[in-house]
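Sat 14:20. Reprocessing the chain from the morning session after the first attempt stalled halfway. Input below, unchanged.
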Amino acid sequence: MRKLLKHLKPYTATIVVIIGFLIVQATCDLSLPSYTSDIVNVGIQQGGIDEKIPEAVTEEEMERLLLFMSREDSERVLEAYELKTADTGYDCEGSVYVLKESAAEDKEEVQELSEILGQPMLLVSGFESDSDTTKQMEVSMKDNMKAAIQSQAEAKAKKAASQMTEEEKAALEANPELAKKQQEEMQAQIEAQMQKIDEADMFEILGMLSEDQREEMVAQIAEKMDDMPDSIVEQAATAYIKTVYEKLGMDTEQIQNSYILRTGAKMIGLAFLGMLASVMVGLLASRVAARTGRDLRSRVFKKVVGFSNAEFDHFSTASLITRSTNDIQQIQMLVVMLLRMVMYAPIMAAGGIIKVFRTNVDMSWIIGLAVVLILLLVLVLFIVAMPKFKILQNMVDRLNLVTREILTGLSVIRAFSTEKYEEKRFDNANKDLMKTNLFVNRAMTFMMPVMMLVMNGITILIVWNGAHGIDNGNMQVGDMMAFIQYTMQIIMSFLMICMVSIMLPRAAVAADRVDEILASKTAIEDPENPETLPAGSKGEVVFDHVNFRYPGAEEDVLHDIHFTAKPGQTTAIIGSTGSGKSTLVNLIPRFYDVTGGRILIDGTDIREITQHELRDKLGYVPQKGVLFSGTIESNILYGNPDGTKAEMEEAASIAQATEFIEEKRKKYDSPIAQGGTNVSGGQKQRLSIARAIAKKPDVFIFDDSFSALDYKTDVTLRAALKEKTQDSTVIIVAQRISTILHAEQIIVLDEGRIAGIGTHKELLKNCDAYYQIASSQLSEKELAGDMGTTGKEEMAHA
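Finished this time. Tokens:
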């Protein structure tokens, strides 16, 4: 992951912007469930009433509320409301108490008034509902009051009797009718009071009580209501406020519709804002990922272009192609996932947890259970699938390698009728990759149903617990719905992280493979303080006691190579197969560096100048002709893009390529397929030679570049080349004696050592290795003519 993140450093500013958009998106997504809860709880269940206290209340209702408050609370409420007797603004008769603007804007005061008015509104609402409970309470209170009146009357009668004088007693005894009349009057008063109590409603009964009695009763009721959930009190208060508004003539249906539409509009706005944030995140994440992939491909390509042959020996071509394409594609995909999901998931999870604890803490254990189940599932998948991810990329390499070998060697395969064998080899590599991919994909496929099972099971668990909470009055339906949504958001956040973490091993392997290329040390490097070749240099090449061995090899392949290739002369190198001819000339352009001695160009060690300056002096024609897709013109002028048409045609003429070029319909504009597959081997070699000639280098290197030419073309080409390169150094590696007969200097290699140096005739006389090569290619007569005597006699004399 660390290696991956370092590639994102250049885009830090963009990533910060992405995080900002992710926060906006998460805020929108996390706000939607609470609005859904509001629509259910407030919009539907509460009729759109979201006030904790009524904004206005009739005078009659206020008097009823005050019956259930202490004197101190009553004064506090009356201070917050203003009594309007005229122009109340409401469609009702009588005076109206209106909440003062200062109180309505003060949240702390509103909360305080809500706590004061909560139970009174519940009680008033209950008594006004005329429920069985309130009826029983009303009958009980009336009976108690009647009993109290009867008891008070009896006590009063006893007190009056005890306080009567003897004269008053005697008068009553003397006048029984008077006593009866007094008793009837007292009974009539009691019956009148009883009738008044029977006709009175609950609020009138409470009004009949003394202040102390009423406060004592309210305290007893409040004590019984202490265990009642706050949600029941709030719902009852809301229902009461709705009733109050109806009495004020307000359109409660319009209030409900307005609330639902207003809340719905907010939800639509948030959803639209979240969509815009999501689109911007996707756009920016894709741009960052695409640019990261572009930068990586560019860096890998530049690194590979600078590789020496030693690095190419370490990294196979198939592996380099896979690392430059498939591996970087894996990194690019992971970057998108990181920026869109991994960074978004923690924000959603943290926000969801905060929202859940604000909604209902009693069910928060369900989220912990869900997270544990998901982590266990992902752990099992990691244990099972992780090893497969690590070998998947190697299998892709293997398939690319087999495919490349088959396609490049198709003609050989057909010639030897080994199609069935190669098909089987490809099928084995293909099936191995398929089986591994199937295993990984099945593991991922298995994960999704299990995840859905966990999510649905958690939903059922929430509904089960939530239903009990709703039944007990501890929570509302909307709260349960919001809790479900928040829980799903939290689970999905962990799920997103887990899914990316499963992708991470494969991308990590890809990142390691790409980083292996970028971090590899190139064997051939330019010096820190390079020298420059002297002005007017001609291209003299000197091998000064050069030794060389391949990286990792135990023995040198070249031993004490010492010679000078001068401008205006042709230096030929010949030897048996494996003697080190191509290795020797590959040291000149620094495809490898010498391990002993040094190579000089115009007196300067080639390791002391830049590779660009060195190779700018060289015209290199490899053993195997290489052409690039394009046209004949683009291939000939490849090393001299600013060359003129005349220079191009001259180079083609010297290379004996004019004949077949002129036969083509588009001449020099004729297309060349990738790898030069639409031209013959000889034509490919001639175009490669023309490319080197058109560059006009100081040093020509021909690595067995005439092998595909017929004898006539070979002779004509060398004659034309001799005239063109009379001021240049020419180094030719050849297998054919005829190619190097007229070279001013011939170097014979034998097992990496110089067996002889001289002209053709000198070597025939002095070098047995050269004579053996010549005798295998030339007739006895030709040998005798070149040596000036019979070959056998000369060699015997030697």
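Residues 625-696 form a domain with the Rossmann fold fold (CATH 3.40.50.300).
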